[in-house]
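Thread: NAP complex, take 2
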Amino acid sequence: MRILVTGGRGQLGRALQNALADHETFALGHEELDVTDPVAVRTVFEDVEPDLVVHAAAWTDTGGCEADPQRALAVNAEGARWVAEACRSAGAAMLYVSTNEVFDGEKREPYAEDDRPGPLNAYARSKLEGERAVQAVLDRCYVVRTAWLYGAGRASFPEKIVQAARESGTLKLVTDEIASPTWTNDLARAIARLIREPAPGVYHLTNAGYCSRLDWAKRILELAGMADVPVEPTTQAEFGAPFRKPVFSALANRSAARLGIELRPWEEALADYFAGAAAGLGGQAKRRKGN
Ligand SMILES: NC(=O)c1ccc[n+]([C@@H]2O[C@H](COP(=O)([O-])OP(=O)(O)OC[C@H]3O[C@@H](n4cnc5c(N)ncnc54)[C@H](OP(=O)(O)O)[C@@H]3O)[C@@H](O)[C@H]2O)c1
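Output below.
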């Protein structure tokens, strides 16, 4: 297949370049394709002629989205719609990457694909609007909700925790935000499996199991050989961020499991990521030639 990846320089975009190496993959970064520009989107479609688009581009800065919800909608919802419309014209399928944060976090067991969304912040509202936009335009559309991504490409949570521990010698993390840390390499491989199935629909794909931010940070410190760094519990309210996150937003990966697609426990994936980093790979996978 000819596959176009939007947001190709982001952390998931980079992992997808490896996972989709069996295909003719064109991973375009923000500067090569701005999805808020419909003319640019159409031009890229004429050049690439994709059979499938994996739409990983998004404005993922939750604080930024809260401060500028119009821009959040322009990138995350309207940008997705321009891509979906181009897919419809080209007869291409689309896979839209979405988030655990579409849920309100009131449930106390993992959310199923058909549970009712209830986003709490502007980023999550814009991502849910994106889901709805692409589903309204396309029949052949996969919506893949995931959570707490980390991987090569930018400093994500593990790197930030290690750096903060080095700098301050002590950390404070919330206990009232619970989800599933997910390595981009594992998610990208699952996406590569999923697109082989002619079964569009909504899928939840995260590493298995879940934990609080605090527990995730503690596991990171253990793997980094910094288990002696004290980690104090706090709450979202005490922390005082200008947005709310769902308290419990683990996802039940039911639809993918029915297709035989299951991700390993988050602890195993995180340990492998750190093993790669220790071996000097930084969890990095080789980039495709020409990208
Ligand atoms: N990170 C998470 O924890 C998480 C959790 C659940 C779901 N997701 C979803 O997973 C997907 C991939 O996320 P990620 O973690 O890989 O994020 P990321 O590293 O921030 O990558 C997103 C990429 O999209 C690009 N982008 C931003 N605005 C764009 C635009 N107007 N046109 C084209 N590209 C644009 C960004 O480029 P610039 O940086 O140059 O602007 C960035 O390279 C997103 O859809 C996100 O909503 C992420």
